[in-house]
Amino acid sequence: MKDMIIETIKNLFSKPATVKYPFEPSPTPPNYRGLIVYKEELCIFCTKCELVCPPGAIRFTYEEDGSKKYHYNPYLCIYCGECVRACPKPGCLTQVEDVAPPATKETKPNWDAVEVEAEESKKRWLAARKKKKS
Q: What is the model's pLDDT at position 39?
């Protein structure tokens, strides 16, 4: 009992062994893989990133004119980097050491609606393409 009291008093006056989160940011671990950064001007819209993304955090929607639009959900992403490795255009997709900002109702994308629209737009685009060939 006496040893416990002495150890308790020592701990009251010693420097804490933990990080002072949230008052100080946690240090970035080595080899940290962060957010995916997309540069539309470099994209060739091959959709390879969408195909290799394990959680489905990247989706493309197809427009009537055949163009595609990139959608990314940082809250679903597991930061594996497969999309960066699969991208044939250097610099189009990169990983930075930033983390996703906290999700709020305003910033959190309605991902269910994006996924539904992506599937429906792809079906419409394929049907229109098939109709043109006929």
A: 93
